[in-house]
Amino acid sequence: MRIISFCFLFCLASVSGFADKDYHYYINLNKVLDDKITVELTPPDIAEKEALLNFPAMVPGTYEIYNFGRFVSNIKAFGKNGANVTVTKVSNDTYKFSPADQLAKVTYEVEDSWDTKIKEKIVFEPAGSNIEDGKNFVFNTHCFFAYFKGMTDRNFILEFDKPKGFYPSTGLSDIKTSETKDVITVADYHDLIDSPIMYNQPDTTTIVVSNTKVLVSVYSPNKVITSKFAASKLTRLLNAQRDYLNGELPVDKYAFLFYFTDRSTLSGASGALEHSYSSMYVLPEMDTMSISQTINDVCAHEFFHIVTPLNIHAEEIGNFDFNNPVMSEHLWLYEGLTEYSAHHAQVKSGLIGYDYFFQIMMDKYNNSLTDYNDTVPFTFMSKHVLTPHYHKQYNNVYEKGAVISMCLDILMRYHSNGTYGTQDLMRDLAKKYGKKVSFKDKDLFDDIEKLTVPEVRKFLNEYVAGPKPLPMVEIFRMVGLDLIKKRETETITLGGIGIGYSEETKRLTIIDVANVDAFGKQFKYKEGDELYSFNNRLMTIENAQEIVTDFVGKAKEGEKVVVEVYRKDKKGNFKLKTLKGKVKKVKITEENIIDISKDPTEKEVIARRAWLGIE
After folding, report:
1. Closest by alpha carbon to 129, among 68, 87, 57, 207?
2. Which of 34, 211, 374, 484 could connect to 593 by a Cys-Cys bridge, CB 3.0–4.6 Å?
3. What number of other Cβ atoms are within 10 A of residue 595's Cβ?
């Protein structure tokens, strides 16, 4: 044991300070100054007199040019045997070294993007960097590590000095770790940028799903959420996704890296960024009940990226240019089909009901019509998504992109008598291509037609590459469902109020009374009212959904309703106030409602059964 330990420490101590064909990076996590850390690079041997060191302008999955070199400062060059090497800033992301063949070492400082003074373009946190001295470090590797132009196909060897007890959670496998030092080796720059690392005192749980070892790593500053809880949620989900992918997952190891924040993010958003063997999450540190479905929905989407684009991708992704990115036409596939599959896998496995699934998909359809330009062909938008005009349309990939994929799934199942759908299409395309082989954008529709039927190709031409509005009525009819454009009904509501949550008081808060209905008007709610009790039941964020569900499902017209709220007086102090009313049904107009057809054909029933399991 002592001999192994001694040899290992010797290897760690000797990583830096020499040149060869590899990149050698060193970072000391014990030395943080003003939310910055110093990065030291011993570069690979360079034969040329001049060399360009690039920090990425953009990385896959972000669809946003962030110019990560903005967060780098104080860059210095050191020559061999004291030689003078000059460094010239070419752009935010690029530095020129001359004479490069004499370069022995480069040092620079990296600023934390989560807590930066640079406000021109805020980096979405799951794609950024976090430096919390002695607590947590989020290494999205593109924020810290650069490459010399034309030299991405080298090993990158990362050496870290770390606080005692810290652990590097990552999807990478080549890791040598000790109490205070780690060495991580990555095969090339593309794999490095595809592999975030989170350092902190470990809260990890490992689960095994089929052939895959899954690491669940959590940082929750107030210990509200644990890796054990997150893993318990993910186990059912991953088993459902395994079954959705025909019983086997296409990776041996995967890591879920969760940072649960107890404060507002700089971007004002939360979410995740996918990678081939891991995903990085920045989510609010809420109670476990409130965060449960969010974990399911977000993780289901990110995990399915192990299929697209890991095993199904265009040349623009397979040969991604970090500093002059070119976009693929097929965001509907990478993001839309992934988003659809995330929800479809849950409904097929029984994690959610099909009524809830319909609600999700129709909400996406409605959003695509009201929030985006429905006449822009998806392939054109995808190709030009980095331009300011079409970038505004990007989030439609999660709305219309998912609906497009649902339509394709239904269309395929109808024309195959239920034997073939998007699950099968993903499997067959992954077999044809895989991680190392890219398709040409112009060939994808041809490849899909060969695997399916001409009707699918026609749909792709007209509704994905073309401007036609989706034929939702006809598509739903293929699985014996009726799409009702508009329907008026009477129902019991909570009053038409908008409800939020106060981090300060930990109470549900009324944030909108603009659409209060006839039932809600009885209570004379005011914006800023904080809910205390509803019909003698104390109301918290944990039990709110249960209270509302019970009320809507069991209340009888004319019954008394008592609501207690905290309302501020003229001095700004909260006073408990009792509001009273009676249950009253109100008329509402529902749009784009899905009903099961009363007279489906046998072919439609077969397709519906294959699609959702509904008889």
Report:
1. 68
2. 484
3. 12
* pLDDT given at position 19: 54
Residues 6 or more apart in contact with residue 367 via CB below 8 angstroms? 399
* CATH number of the domain residue 256 falls in: 3.30.2010
Range of the domain at 356: 315-466
- The least confident of 52-56, 76-80, 427-431, 465-469 is 427-431
Look at residue 373 in the predicted model and tell me its pLDDT: 95
Residue 181: inside a domain, yes or no?
yes
* 409 & 544 share domain: no
User: Residue 486 falls within a domain, yes or no?
Assistant: no
Is 347:357 a contact under the CB 8 Å cutoff? Answer: yes
Contact (Cβ atoms closer than 8 angstroms) between residue 314 and residue 438: yes
Structure tokens that stand for 590 in this block: 């529902």
At 549, which CATH number?
2.30.42.10
The 3-class SS string of 54-97 reads ECCCCCCCCCCCCCHHHHEEEEEEEEHHHCCCEEEECCCCEEEE
Report which of residues 311 and 203 the model is more confident about: 203
Give the count of domains, the chain.
Answer: 4
Q: How many CB atoms lie within 10 A of CB 565?
A: 25
Name which of 229, 207, 212 is nearest 220 in CA terms: 229
- Check whether residue 101 and residue 217 sit in a common domain: no
596 lies in some domain: no
pLDDT for the residue 593? 86
Asked whether residue 2 carries a pLDDT value surpassing 70, the answer given is no
89 and 65 within one domain: yes
Length of the chain: 615
Q: What is the DSSP string of 503-546?
A: TTTTEEEEEE-TT--HHHHTTT--TT-EEEEETTEE--TTTHHH
Position 81 in a domain: yes
Confidence band, pLDDT 50/70/90 cuts, at residue 16: very low
Q: Averaged over 524-534, what is the pLDDT?
A: 94
What pTM value is reported for the model?
0.84
Same domain, 102 and 193: yes
3-state DSSP helix/strand/coil % of the chain, to nearest 5: 35, 30, 40
pLDDT value at position 8?
34
Task: For the chain, give the mean pLDDT.
Answer: 91
